[in-house]
Structure formats: C-alpha cells, structure tokens
Fold these 4 entries.
Entry 1:
Amino acid sequence: MTKIVDVGGGKGSRYAKDFINEYLPDMQDLEFVRLDADPGTDPDILQDITRPIPKKHCGKYEVVYASHVIEHIAFWDSLAVVNNLLSLLRIGGYILIIVPNLEWACKQVLAGMCDLSVMAVLWGGQDNEWMYHKSGYTKTALSVMAKRLELTLMQLKSTPLYVFINEKETVASQHVMLARKDKENQPLRIEIKPRERIPIVL
Amino acid sequence: MRVLILGDIEQGKIFFEDDVEYANQGPFDCILLATHLQTVQRQHVVQVLSKLADELVDGGRIIATVPALEWACKEIAANLDNMGLAPYTALYGMSDVPYLCGFTMPWLRMSFEEAGLTVIEARSDFYTLKFLLEGDIEATERAQQHIIIGLWHKKDPAQAIDWMAENDKDS
C-alpha cells in the first residue's frame, strides 16, 4: 500500500493517479488521503498548509502530491509551506509539485500573446475566492527551493497545461518537480502570515 | 482641483501642484490610481474604471500608474537563473495587497477605452524600488511602469443607454 497525501486538491485531484503512475511507476496499490483548508470539500485532513502539520500526521506518507497549490501562496512564504508539507513524508518519500510555468507566460507576453490563458497562468482563474495566484515559478526557482530544503531533485520538466477559458480548451505550460526527502526536514524560522482571502471587488 | 488618490498617496506629489484639494467624495476633477489598478480582479478592471469615471466632472481625468508587464516578463525571461526582485514584484507585489492582474501598454489602453475614457497620454518610465532584505539591509532596483491618462466626457442619456446595451450584449 502506497499512502499518498493529495494536498489542496479539494474533493480529489483529477490527474493525481496519472501523475503518480507516470513519475513514480514503481508505486503500487495507491491510497489517497485528501488534505485541504476548505471544509466545504470535506477533506480527510482539514489543514491550512501555512500552519505546521500536527504531529499525528507527520512521517506517515510515501508521497506528497501538490498540484497547482503553492502558486496560491506568496513567494516569501512558499519555502516554509513546502517545508510543512515535507513533514508529512517519511524519510525516502517523494514530493511531486506541479505549478504553472512562469517563463512560458513571460515569453507569451513578450510575443504579444497576452490572452486570458496567459493571465490565468500568471494570476489564476479568479472564478472563486481560492483561485488566485500569489506567486509564479521558473524551473530555477523550483530547483533552488529543492536545494534550500535539502531535497534530492529527481525530475524537473515542463509539460502541457490544458486551461479552459470560456469553455474553450487552450494549451499553456506547467512545471513538474519530483524530489526525494532523504533527511529529516528542520523547522524553518520563517514567519507566515495567516492566509488572506481575496475580497470580491464589486 | 478636487483630487482622489487610490493606492500610493505619495505619488500625488509627482502628479499634482500644491493647490489641489484631496477629497474622498465626488465629483472629482482627477482620480489618480497610483500603483493600484493591478490590485483589481482582471474581470472587473473595466467596470472599476467606468464606475470611477462616473465620479468625475465632465472633462475630468483618470491617471493610472501600473508596473509594466512586458518589462517584467522581459527581465524574468532574460535572467532565469538570477531573477531580480523588481520584475518579480511587478507581477505579484511585495506588500500585503496582492496583485491580481497586470498590464501591457496595449492592454491598459484597451481597458481605458472600453471604460469610455479617451486616452490623451500613455508613456512608460523607470522608477526606483526600495527593498528591505534580511538583516534590515536596504536594496534598490530599477523598475518600469506605465502611466496613462484618460479623459472623461459625460455622455448624453441616449448615448449612455446605447453604450450600456452594447456592454450587456458583450457580457
């Protein structure tokens, strides 16, 4: 049994199983546990990831799957948040992080292709109070993050990201980072502000 | 001249003489959105500009300064291994107020025009951003911003109805 914690995926990330099968093909008999801050999704673990993970959940999982999650956190807080997520893993466990591709979005803007899919990659879909991006990541930023958290970087690549804008599918880009936790993560002395919710303007 | 400033109040010194009256109730001769428009949800930008324009006198102006999106993207794309703070904060901000959208100059101009404002000036310039780094070390970086000025003329009621019908149809 491979215990996987699906972080911020609400009622369950749509492509979690496909990504685990692709990036960790040796993992068999997958069991997903849903961790989310939104009680409306009825998660298995109700948890704000900007807060330390309670001890009872620490070191219990083989994989942390965080798809399109950390871009919703301010960049200054992201290191501490990912460090929180690492505490869920046992030693030798993996973290799979998927984020929109910041350099792709920048190149699109420079090419004059500043459409809604680019806006969605940069600042989120903005169709509900959770869907706002507060940070963006280049491959370099992700690899620096892995290094700072003393993770062993296994894979870091860009793949297509299918975005629906006005019911039409457009292809954007995302980064996928797979890293392994080889040593116990240390608490970081970074103060995280309580999660802000975006006010609705009108 | 009655002026409303939203955002960075300090920018008032750049755009206005001493004899202005800063007010929080319309009608205004000028509204300055000082590094503020990018904190509005992108789907509401035109509506916000339009509602603000309603608070202007006939012939009043809206001035907006925003981080230059194309400059930030150029800097990030050109310096992937050593991204500066200034281009990054141009996209996502650095204070407690997150940025919710961004503007290239054509996008900014289009937003003003869709809100019924006539663009009378649009330019870009560089300014200096100050950062407080770890250990209270102060650092500075140059960043580019767009400055746009839109002129507002009250529509006659018949035109206003047509304009609203057009917008309803689009939405």
Entry 2:
Amino acid sequence: MKQERSTSLEPRLPESPAYWDGLANRITSGAEAVLRELAEATAPAENWWSVLAARAPALAAAAAVAIVAGTVAVSGGTAAADESPYDEIARAIGPTDEIAQAFFAEANPPTVESLLPLVASTGEER
Amino acid sequence: MTSPTDRDLILRVRRGEPAAFNDLVRRYLRPALAVAWEFADSLDDAEDVVQDAFHRALGALDRFDEARPFSPWFFTIVRNVGRNAVARRSRWASEPVTDALPANQSVLSEIERWEIRQRVGDAMELLTPMQQSCFRLCDLEEFSAPEVGEMLGINESTVRVHVFRARRTLREVLRPLREEAGS
C-alpha cells in the first residue's frame, strides 16, 4: 500500500487543533460551489408550500369573490324557476311511466285510490 | 444535546447546507488523513487526497444509499483516490530526495539519527504493506482495530493479525538496536 520508505516509528498526524480547523475549512470552502448548486436544486421542490403561503391573501380574496358570485347566481336561478334541485334530479333520472312517477313526484307515497285510475288507463293502453 | 447522526448530516448536505458538510468533514477528517497518508509521500500529498476524497463523496452523495453506513463507503473513496494518486506519482517517476543533513546541527548526532532511521526503515520494509498500515494506524496513530478495519476495508480480526505480525517482526529486527542503546 505504502510506496515511500518509512523511517520513523512516531505518530505522523498533527495534533494542533488549529491545523485540523484549517484543513476542514479548506475542504469546506472548496465545496462551496457544489453546495450552492445543491441548495438551488432542492429549494423549489421543497419550498412549494412557502410560495403558496406568500400568495395566501390574494388566493383567499379570490375564493371569497367566487363564493359570493356563485351564491348570487344560484339564488337568482331558483327564484326564476321556483323549483327545487330535487325535482330537477327526479325528473332527469326518474321512470317515465305514470304509476312510477306517482311514487316519485310527491314526498309521501300515493294512495290506492289515486293509483286506480292510472292502472285502469295503463290497462286500456295495453 | 446529542450530535446528529451521519444520516442526518447527509440529508442536510444533500440540501446544500454548508454547516452540515463542515460537521461531516470534521467527523471523518482525522481517520481520512491517516488512511490517505498510507498512500502519500508527504502530509501535503495526504491532504490533497483527503480533500479530493471529500469532494468526490459530495459529488456522489445523491447516489449514496443513506440506509447504509457512511464510513465504509467514504473510506473506499479515500482509498481509491489514494491509489490513483500513487499511480499518478509512479507515472511521473520522480525519486524523492531524503535524509539531507541540516547544516546547523552536530554532524555526529545527525549521523547516528540517520543510521537509526535507516535501520527502522529497513525493519519497516520487511513488513507487508498491509502490516505497515495496520501497525502504523493502530500503534502509532492510536486508532482502534475496528476503526482501522473500517478505514482499510478489512476485518477487525485481520487488523489484529497484521499488527501482531508487524510487532513481532519489528521486535526481532530492532532488538540489536535496543541492546546497543542499553550497553
């Protein structure tokens, strides 16, 4: 391993703390450029939340405006149609025959009397 | 406060924190220099090897698996950089000038010291390179056998065997020197 002829049985490593400080500083300062590159490369990926936090007031204001505008639009629409969203959905997905519609159209189930004419008319069609 | 683990420091170094790199350097500097000197002709050369090894480790840190221990990986880099330095020097093939006598000291005592150094050198040359390294790192630089094993990438018990054989050889070869000194 060693190439040079050794002629001493004394320890070779320096003992002075100043020596080790100097060597450590030399090595660290020589790596500054690489460390700076590493810091720049990792900064955007790790600090996305801080970028978001910096824009939080603007984002909150935009969200508030969107909520107000949405509320106004929805309240205007229901006033005009005078119809609940439930009715709209029931109409869209509900069955088309009259008997089944009688079950869907009201909140309470239909009476037998109200269904009999519908049954009669359906039988006549068949 | 407990000191941060190697893994903590490595994760921070990967984020480019100079303080973490400085801590890592200081933690491994002394054993790294000891290993580097096994491949170097001088302290200056050993420092260059260590600096190069730390910078290469930093460059390769993104490929290092932090679940594994840092020291064996790092000392492998130190040894590889040291071997490369040896290969470069052997290509240059310049013989070092050694043992020049200082003019301001007693010539007689210098000759005696020179003779002693020659005999120690002769004795050391009887050791294998690994025996020299293990003996120097354990007995002269006072690293433990497990530390030296990690530094040189060999088993701890192998370190102890190399040290034992080195001591036995040196004791045999240098016995006349001790007897001369005692007489």
Entry 3:
Amino acid sequence: MPDPIDAVYRAESRRVLATLIRLLGDFDLAEEALQDAFAEAIEKWPIEGMPANPRTWLVSAGRFRAIDKMRRRATFDAALARVSAYAQNSAHTPADIDDERVDDDELRLIFTCCHPALAGDAQIALTLREVCGLSTEVIAHAFMTSAPTIAQRIVRAKGKIRDARIPYELPARGELTDRLDAVLRVIYLVFNEGYSASAGDSLTRVELSAEAIRLGRLLVDLLPEPEVIGLLALMLLHDSRRGARVSPAGELVLLSDQDRSRWNRDLIAEGTVLVERALSSRRAGPYSLQAAISAVHAEAPGAEATDWAQIVGIYDVLLRMDPAPIVELNRAAAVAMRDGPVAGLMLIDAILVRGDLTDYQHAHSARADCLRRLDRRDEAAAAYRHALSLTTQDAERQFLERRLAGLLAAPPLMQREIHPKLPNERGRRT
Amino acid sequence: MRYLCIIYDDEKAWENMSQADVEKGMAAYFAFDDSIKKSGHHRVGEALQPTNTATTVRVRNGKISTTDGPYVETKEQLGGFYLIEARDLNDAIQVAARIPSAQWGAIEVRPIQEFPEQQ
C-alpha cells in the first residue's frame, strides 16, 4: 500500500469498519467492504488525488461495493437477501456518516464486541480483531493458542451476533453500568495479559498493553465516565513500572525492590491527573480506587517512604464496595506494611482458615513474606514451597525460588526455634 | 424476532414454600404476564407440571421406548416458558430479566429458528 494510503488505513480503517457494520448490518460484509474500499482507493487516489475527507469517501465506496455485490448474490442466497434488504432500505443520508455518528459507531462496535451474551474469551478475541484490527495470528500468539482456535471463536461470536440478533447499538441508559462493566473488564484483561503474563515474547505483550491503553484513551474520549477514567489511570500507572518490574534476566522484581528511577514519570503524571479527575466525580469505583493505590505508590520516593496508612484506607473503601477475598488479601499485605508482619499474618490466616484463597499462590507467598519478616523460617519455607506448588508462571516461580534460597542461606535474625516434628533438609545443613 | 425464554428453577423450592410465599410468587407471575401482554412482547406462556410427571420417549429401530422422568437430571428444572416477540436480543434480555424466576432460578433465552417459508 502506498504510504499516504497506508497512513489513512492505520488511522481510519477501524472507524470506517465501525460505520460500515452499522450501514450494512453485518460484520463479514463490512470487513469485505472495507477491503474493497481500500482496493479502490489504491487504484484511484494516486490518479485522482486524495479526497478531502478520506473516511467519508471510504465509507461510501465500501457501502456501494457491498450493496452491488449483495444484489448480484441475493438471487442465490435467501439469508443474504434479508441483509441486502436491510442495507438498501435503511435510508442513509450524509448526516449518517458525520463525525458524531462515527464516534458513536466506534462505541457501538466496542459495546457489541464486549456484549455479555458472548463468551468471555470470544469478547476478547472479537475486540482485538474488530476494534484493534489485530490479526488472528497475533491474537493467537498473545494468548498462547492457535490461530484456527481464535478464528473459530471469532466466527462463533459473529454467528451469535447475527443469529441471536445482538443489536449494533449503544446500551440504553438503564443498561449502561452493566454493559460498561463488561467493556472495562475486557480492556483490563487485555492489558493484564500484556502486563502480567510471563509467557509469550515481550514484543507481543507490549503490543497488547498498548492496545488496551489505546482503547482506554478512546473510551475516555467517547464516554468519560469516572470508572472509564479510573481504568485508564490504573493502566497508565501500572505501565509506568513496566521497565522496572522484570530484571534483565527475566525475573520478577517486587514493587518494594524496584529501581524507581526507571519508572516512567510522564505516565505517572498523566495517570495521577486522571485518578484525581475520577475521584473528584464522587462516583469512583473499583478501578479508580485501585488506580489511587497505584498513585500512592508512584508518589513515594522509596518503598519505606510509602504512605501505607493511606493505602490501607483506600483498601477499606474498596473492600466495602467489593468484599472479595483477593481485595481482603491485598489489604492484609498493606496492613503488614503499616502495622507489621504479626498484624498482616493474622488477617491472612483468617482468610485461609475460612477456606478462601487456599489455592491462590499469592495468599501463600504473602503469608510466607510475613513469616520471613518474623524470622519464622521453617514456616516461611513451607509457605513458599506451597506457593511454588501453585504457580504456573516462570517469572513467579523464579522469584519464589530465590526467596526460598535466600531464606535458607541467610543468618538467623534471632535464636531459631527448633521444630523437632519437621525433620527436613534444613536439619542436614546445621 | 421471536425468542423462547426457558425458565429453570428448583421445583423443590416451590414445594417447600409457605402458602403465603407461593401466593406472592404467583402474584408476581400474574403481574409479569399482564405487563408483557400490554407491551406487545407476549406470544405464548405456560408453566409446566413438576418433573415427576414427565416421560421421556425415544424411538429406536422403529420401537418406542418410554422412561420415567426428564431427559437430564439437574439441580434446576425446566419449569415453564414464554415465547416472546422482541426487537432484538437486548430487548429479549430485558424481558427475561423481569420473569420472576430470574430472581432465584435462571432464564435461557433462545432465538427461534426462522425458516424461509415462514417469512
């Protein structure tokens, strides 16, 4: 593709697609029309010159080609006849493709791809394919699965949109909160897949996080709800630490051990402004509050200077809003920093005794960390081993193994307790 | 477009309910019936007798075999259905969410397969 057209493709293809889906009433037809429109542009623009408004030109060209094709095919295919009738009968005026409607089309596309009637993994695949324009190969690579699997998910999702008639529209006011939750969840999952997953090459992962942030920015432009702003802030603040959270050897570096000079100050500044904007709405939700916690970390010059009291306070609010065991665990870890390891350990043990999070790696590693700080080494070692048995990620496994090795090698902080009931490898060392 | 809203709930729960609660549940259903008749969504709606009245029929090699009970044993049973006319899935979901059993059971929303000759 010649360069100027390539630039238009990168800037406008998703928005053209979003409008074509509305005008044609069908995802596959719209994608075909998009390709046809660009093929025509490559033919005509170098001769006739770039049109004043390339996007409108592409939408019109795509729509015209699609209707023409449908007319020719409709005789053979009854289902297509119905779509064809829709595409031709709905009266479209130039106002239909003005900027405001087109913004709405992008939102329509996002809300449709993240419709809660679609399976979760299908929502993600469809959003990355249709809204972000990633190829099925790239999506498959990012989620460590095969391209045919991803393609099949997308085909099924499109099939359900068509057959169950999921409408291409913005949610009604009464549905907005639920529907927006699904969109935010998809964006955050995409971000986390790019940020937390240790498998897959780093290039693909950076791309995924970048796409999630791009979607977050787009959504803030189109629908500046407090939680939309909060989610973007959260992603930017996490992303600001990307360079510092993994060592050159690929090992995970704890927040407290990270080289803070490597944090991206521009992202922190932008994220912090957004957090304040979300919180000042007084309708802040879980994403905004998590972003606020991340902002407190970001403003601390060092781990020991962190305002743990403020962090525990935000977790208190978060816990009232979302009384989930994982939130409780994170609060316990913050309490362990504010009030010391004994206080933290009591809270963590209370969660585990209740039967929650017993198979959650981070519960056992947080517990191990409290025990380590108390120099209760045997118990700490047992907890690290338990955490190790539950982890599936290489970077986490390496981190836990290092902690375990450090624990066994370090000189005792105080007189070591003897546990005669637990003869283990430590017995041989002494 | 037509959708079948299939109602699943625990029929034992109905059996063990107090008379007052059963009446409350019935009243909620009567009110829902009225509302979807007024809104134009209603086509057909029926409640089914409990699964202990069910018979499953199969024909294999031309021979009829009948067995007692429903085809599958589940915690929540098929207890009734509504056939509705809805603009699209979002509209159907809004109707299904107002079926009283959605509060304690679950509603499966399935689009009706339209064949060309029906159109």
Entry 4:
Amino acid sequence: MNRRNFLLGSAALLTACGKSSQKIRLALNWKPEPEFGPFYAAPYRKYGLDVEILPGGAGTPTIQMVGAGSAEFGIVSADELVVARSRGNDVAALFAVFQNNPQGIMVHASRKLTSIGDIFRHPGTVAMQRGLSYARLLEKMYGFDKVKIVPSPNGDVSAFLHDKNFAQQCFITSEPLIANRQGADVQVFPISDIGFNPYTDVMATSGELLRSKPEMVKPMVAAVREGLRIYLDDPKPTNVHMQQLNPTMPLDLFTETSEVQKPLIETEETRRDGLGVMTKERWETLIKQLKDLGDVEKAPAAEECFRSL
Amino acid sequence: MGAIASSVPSGGVALDLKNVRRVFDDLVVIESLDLRVEAGEFLAILGPSGCGKSTLLRMIARLAEPDAGRITFHPDTERFQTAFVFQDAHLLPWRTVLDNAALPLELMGIEREQRYRRAHASLRQVSLSEAEGRYPAQLSGGMKMRVSLARALVTAPRLLLLDEPFAALDEITRFRLDNQLRELWRQRAMTVVFVTHSISEAAFLANRAIVLSRRGGRIKLDRRLELPSERTDDLRANPRLGREMKILLDAMEEE
Amino acid sequence: MHALKPLTGVRGSEQSRGRKGPLLAAIPALVPFVVITSALELAVRGGLVRAYLVPAPSSVFRAMVESRGELMRAMLTTSASALLGFFLSTVAGIGIAVFLSSSRAIQRAFYPYAVFFQTVPLIAIAPLLVIWFGYGTRTVVASAFVVSIFPVIANTLTGILSTDPALRDLFRLYGASTLVTLFKLRFPAALPQILTGLRVASGLAVIGAIVGEFIGGQGLGSVVDIARTQQRVDKVFAAVLLASVLGLALFGLINLISYVTLRRWHASEQA
C-alpha cells in the first residue's frame, strides 16, 4: 500500500469514526422479543454506526417519533406508514423483516371453527384494536353484530384462558405460544387469510433524514440486513441478550418463537431478491385496500412509501 | 322570669369535694383539695395560669375524673342540670343562634315546640331576640358569648360552671356581661362556680372567692366577700371593692 | 321556621354584586383559552407545529362536528360511569372514614390498606378487573371508584377527627351518645373538609372512568383509543376536550353543593 492510499484510507477511517460519534436511536414498538432479533444482532460498529435501541411497549408512537425526529429510525407496520403519510408525516420504509403479516386472531380449538369468518358468525367475544385497518376490513366483510368487540388486552392472555368463547387478536408468533404453555388448545387464523398482508416489523425513517444523511441510512440498512442473516442462522446469543432486557419472557419461549417466525421472514422473494426486500406491487395493493376502507383520504404514491437501499 | 326555672326547686345544688387529686403524667396538678360549696353560692376561683383551676372545674362538670378523692352533689344532679360556659363561645357555626341555644334541649330529647319556646325565652334573657335567625359568623364576640350563656341557661341548670368566659372580650362588653350574669344568678336559684384570673371580676361578681396556689391546687385563701348583694356599676368605683381586691391580690402574690 | 332577617351592613354590597356575577366571572377564565387556541392555530397553519403531532384547533372543532353523534353518545356513557363511580366512592369513602374514626386501634390496623387505593397502578390490575367485572360499564365504574375513593377517605377522616374538643365536651355534658355526636357534631363540622376531598375525587373519577374504558371498551376512552390507533389526532383531542368538560362539570357541581351548604357559615364560601 503506497503512501497516498494509506492517507486516503486513514481519512476514510477517521471520517467513519466521526460519523459513528453521532448517536442513532432506533425505536421499537414493543418489548425486546424475537421479532426484533435482527436489530439486536446487527453489527452496527462494523458499519461505523453508534446505535441505541429504545425498547417500546403498548402504544409506543414510533411513527410519530420518527416523524418528529425523536428517533432516527423506528419499527412500524406498512399500513400505519401509509396512513401516516396521508396525514402529512413524511416517513419511508427501508427494510421489511416480516414479509408476511404475523397478525392473526386466536380462538379456542374446541370451538371447531373453520375459517376466520366463522369467528364472526358465532356469538362470542372478540378482543381487537378496533382502530386497526384489518379490524375495519373484517367488519366490512363479516359484520360485528353477532359478536361483542372489546379492547385488546395487549399480550395478556388471562381473559382468553378464562373464557372458551373468547377470541383475541395476536401475533401468531407470540400470544398463541404463551396460551399453549398455560394449557390452552389454541387455533390461529392469520389475517393474511382475508388478503390483508402489509409488511410488518418494518424499519422506517424520515424523509428528512433520507435527504440530509443518506450516508447514515444506507449503512444502517446494510447492518440490519446482515443482522437478520446472523439471527436466522443462530438466534441463541441474541436471544440470551434480549432475554436479559425482557426477563418476563422465558428463554425457551424466545427459542420457540424465533423458530416459528422463520417462514414469515424467509420466503421465495427474499431468497431471490435479498432479505427485507419490498415491492411496489405489494405497496400498491395495500394503498388501494386502505383507500377502499376509507382509512386514507389522499392516497400516497407507492414509490414515496419505501426505498430500496 | 323565674317561670323558666319551673322544673327546678329553689336552692341550686351544693358541692362537696373531699381529697380531690388530679395528676397529669408526672405533674401533680391538684394534690389534695377539700372544698364545700353551698347551694346557691356564687363562687369565684382565682389563681395564676396553670394552677389547676380549669382542671378543677372540668372535674366538677364530670368531664374528667379525679385520680383520688370524691366529688358529691347535694341533691345528686342529673347530668343536664349542670351547664358549662367555655372561654370561647364554641357555637355550632352551621346552626342559627336559636338552634344553638336550643342544642342542650335537643340532645336531651325535648320535642321541637317546647325547646324552641325555651330557647327563645333564654335568648330574651340575654337580650338577643332580634338575632335569633342569624348565624354565628355574623355575630360579634360579645354576642356569641351571650348565645353561649343563653345555651347554658336553657336547661334551667342548678349548677352553672364558667371557665374564664369573658376573658377574650373588651372591657365594656365584659362589664355588661358581668352585670347580666349577676342578674341572672339572682333571678334563678343556681350555684355558680366562676373561674377567672381577673381579681376585679372575681370581686365584683362573687359572694365567695378562693385563691389557688401556683402549683398543687392548694387553697391559699377562702374568703366570703364583704360586699352588698346588689352589684351595680357604681360598685366599681366603691372603695369597698378596692379593699376586697387588695385582699385577694395579696393572697395571690404571697407564695 | 325562623326566617333569616335581612342582612345589612357588611354583607349588603356583596349581595348586589353577585347578580351580574356569573357572566363576568367567567371572562378571566376564557381569556387564556382564546389566546392559546389562536396561537396554536397559527402555529399549525404556519408549519411551526406538525399537524400530525398537535392538531390545529380548527381541525379538532371539525372532528367534533363530524363525529358529534358518536362523541355525544360516548360522553353520555362516560358521564354515567364516572358519576356512578364517584357516587359509590363518596358513599363508601365516607363510610370507611367513619369506621376508621371510631378508634385509634382501628385506624392503625386498617388505614394502611386504604392507602393501597391511592397507590395501585390501574393498568396493573386491569386484567383482574376484567375477569371480575367483565367488559363494559361495570369495569369502568370499578375503575373510577378505585381511583377516586382515597381522597374521600383521607379528607373525611381528617375532618371527623378534627372536631373542636370543647364542642365534644359540650355534647358529652348533655349525655349525647357517640352516634348522636357523630351526626349532629362531627359530620357537619367535617363538611368543609369532606367537600375538599370530593373536589379532588371528582376529577379522579373522570380519569378513572376513561382509563377503565381503555380496558373495558366504551365511551370517550374507547373513542380516544381507537382514534389513536387510526392516527386521528384531531379526534383524540376532541374526545380529550370533552373529557375535560366532563371533569369541569363535575367539579362545578361539587362547588355548587359546597356553596349551597356552606355559604351561611363557612369562611371558604364567604367574602
């Protein structure tokens, strides 16, 4: 290596170090769990990034935080991103961990229901966040007059265990496993069954940051992509780390969940085009669905909603 | 005017205190007191602050029990025939003057019509008829004390106990109320025990005065006052009053 | 029975001022409201504040008009629950305080558990409430009750225990039983303090009802929860504003009761 290259190399290294001195905040929309494995596994330092992960909980407004600048990156779902854009919040998706929507409704298997529509054809209680787009889609498709809709208990399954006719919104990677461990015989109907399949566990950032600091965004995406690979190949070390941050969830549940979620993450598309990939077609489908539902008045353009970096 | 006391035979009640002792924590407030009060007497109890005079009065009122000794009453009175006037009027602020005056009768279970009639008469005795509908917040200090007096008298008590009742009032009001109290005592048949630290008030009002020691409740002086039974404002300028006051003062100062 | 004689002198001037009072008295309270809403409107329109974080007052107003049916129904539901919860906490709170006042031993034994009501985080016991009371009004009322009862207990107890000892002596002198003393002396004497407790409890009852509705689903709490999920900040603010109005109304009711019962005799209601 001659002197010139050495100097250039040092300069590059120094600037990289300079970049890493700015703290980058990544806001999660739930507690540290296997869905966030890639983010905890990602080798940020290698890409010169100094990242602080902010765990979340029920109702953490990640999309507002990103828009307002209190976090550089945040985890959102595609449908809430579309709605946010239509309200003037300039945010864009960068990487979709879950290619397929993990949301679902769980019921007691003893009810012998055969489809998601069945849930609404028989009397019972359904706990759902009524404001969610898919909830309104379900209402439109099946009507809620036979069932009693109550607020979602946000991860707590005690009401579900207590009542055989209780159905509950869930992440198919989460609540059903917990309920199973407590002795319930659970059956889950994925929301994607009704054709509603937004990208989930999506890392998003603000348009502002994209314009002003592309040199931060690109490496971030690369780091996360590598983190996802690392996590898929060997989730154990990351699970141990996350379990320390979230002690209420036992380690074996972490292991079980990280296995169960794999088919949602690695699909034909990702094997072909890379992990976290997003397509214009799927965004367009989602935008149309939301427009039909009346959740957005002015539909944003699909190209504005995401970037492929 | 004596008709109000129709239920009470004349003569008031006599008190007999024998070896009365009262202790608070380690302090002997009253060591061993013997006292006999005749029926119908107007007794003043004098002494410096902390000498136990209020404690003594409360025991006579049966609000406190002596730690040793006995207090007997002749004839043995029922509770409501003793009345107590405190240093502050202590009226119930949410009740009218009339309702305040009627309170003892209400607590005794006397029915409405009768108790308002008696309260009304009692208030007339202290010249407060026009204030019947007012609330204590609207009264002056002197008026409130008069209501307190009327309240005390409404049960036609045989024994009236007063604990420095006029101490917080201005002098003119105090003189007026002194006169009123003396007059009421003359009209009714009751024994009055009046605690005060004012020598002039004790001399003006009472026909007998005792002076308590600074500590221990010892009776230093027990004197029948040589003064006319009719006490008017003229008496205040009379040298005879001054003489009695001097005697009481000397007793109080000697230790 | 005895008519109050016409009041003259000191109180006369205050009486006549009271006639045009209520309207003029409201003006100082409205000024900050007008100033802040105007400033906010300009800030949002000018882009100083992002509309998806803090909505322009005009959009909140629009949301109110648009969803007035839904909001009115929700407000009635929440009002009913809050009022019932508040009523229950008033009755139970006063009852518990009376019980606690009966002896020092009882106070030492049970008062710490009353403090539990003060400190328990509602979100933590939420699943339990749902299991015991089910989804719906009962959970909401229970929530309002739990959150608002402690100030009633604490203030009532203080009031009852603070009775003038001389007055207690007076009642003893005339042979009044403990019960009679409680109702004719200690209770009326404690009334100003009880009303203070009710003032605090009224606001808490509304908060408790709204939180209960997050859990149990209905009323303004439900509107807030759903609108928040839909990112309809304007509707969230509209519902929150109505909740504040409810809290104010309840507070005003207590003040009215305080005025009517205390005005003749307590310093707090007099000039």
